[in-house]
Amino acid sequence: MASNKLKGVWVKQIALIAGSFLLGLVLTxxxxxxxxxxxxxxxxxxxxxxxxxxxQKALRNLxxxxxxxxxSFAPTESKISLKYVCMSCGSRVKGAKCxxxxxxxxxxxx
Length: 110
Ligand SMILES: [Zn+2]
Prior knowledge:
The protein contains three helices and three strands. By secondary structure, the protein is mainly α. 4% of the residues are buried. It is elongated, with a radius of gyration of 28 Å. The chain folds into two domains: 2-70; 80-110, no CATH class. Strand 1 (83-86) and strand 2 form a beta hairpin. The protein binds zinc ion. The site of zinc ion has 8 residues, from loops.
């Protein structure tokens, strides 16, 4: 089953996090707080990169596309912006009032 593969990734991930936590404790014990902590952070950053890669691979194996695996759900922003046209002279209005005749009466156009 495909879900077993993903579950395996999770188990591996939890084991890695637990392992790195223990490693951090050991490093902190032997090298002192600052050195141990910074070493642990380096290890964790490396782990996160490794996990990301293996997770993406697993998701791709499940049939997800790269974008979905990457978690980029940014909506495709519509490029439609409202434009305004002066109601007095009919020219394009960019600011609060018409640059041509100074009228503040304007209507939205697409
Ligand atoms: Zn105008």
